[in-house]
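Researcher: I need the complex structure. Ligand is nicotinamide-adenine-dinucleotide. Inputs:
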Amino acid sequence: MTILVTGVAGFIGSKFVYYYLRKYKDRKIIGLDKLTYAGNLDNLSKLTQEEKKRFVFIKGDINDRKLLEEIYSKYEIDGIINFAAESHVDRSIHDPGIFVKTNVLGTQTLLHVFKEHYDERKKQKFLQISTDEVYGALGPTGYFTEETPLDPHSPYSASKASSDLIVKAYHDTYGLNTNITRCSNKYGPYQFPEKLIPLMIHNALNHKELPVYGDGKQIRDWLYVEDHCKAIDLVFEKGKSGEVYNIGGHNEKENIEIAERLNGAVGATRAVVDMGWIDYSHQIGLSGKTVSPNYT
Ligand SMILES: NC(=O)c1ccc[n+]([C@@H]2O[C@H](COP(=O)([O-])OP(=O)(O)OC[C@H]3O[C@@H](n4cnc5c(N)ncnc54)[C@H](O)[C@@H]3O)[C@@H](O)[C@H]2O)c1
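Model: Output:
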């Protein structure tokens, strides 16, 4: 079995490559990545010689239909997992266009090529990796479920919500076997240092201020990246066609608590400073379908 995985040089995609190749010794991955500022091939440098034989890296854009066709003509693709995205909220506020191009149009291009090669008997899977940010903000209590209405606020979350709807449209219109996972915030090794936890560690160690938004009381649910990979694998293997699955850690923390604990952990006492606006709260709750790995 060979799957096409996009965004393999990014934070989560690279962890998934290790996870998948180590779990399934007879499977192969074709990894596609544009290598934007967020992509780093060093993230894949610890693959063993044996794993490298089952992994092909292709530098390219999910918007490049010709390239996608070439991949399909060269390899027998048994499914797609789409991690490729512009993923940083703050960047989307400064440059929304690239978020629409990659997250919306890129997903549609990938889906369309998937559709053109879809085999009704094999029913290959297209799995879209999305985010709980598509649900917008919660009050101080409560949870998102898969039935929570979409209510994105930033260009990032709007682009992810849009790509989710494109995936739904391809499922509903063409009967393709698709799933969407919506996960809360991840942490783990080699995360790009613009994200909250590595940024706080970096700043605390380098005697810089720790930036939070407002009073820092925004609540985020945190999940270890490898637990996310396990949940993705489960949905890719067993997900019911057309379903959305939330993935949460039940590990909610205020941003200010994260900043203060990391400050303490590195023995620093840097000031925590206000950066301006952001959505208030993201918590993922249990519905019948919610995937909540209990091994975090
Ligand atoms: N990190 C989180 O906490 C989090 C939370 C929920 C959902 N997600 C979602 O998970 C997915 C992966 O997130 P991440 O944190 O690994 O992101 P990341 O920014 O670390 O990696 C994204 C990867 O996609 C590649 N890429 C960007 N545009 C591309 C294009 N047009 N064609 C091909 N490759 C392209 C980049 O080079 C990079 O390697 C994203 O879809 C993101 O929305 C992330």
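Model: Summary of the prediction. The domain at 2-187+222-249 is CATH 3.40.50.720 (Rossmann fold).
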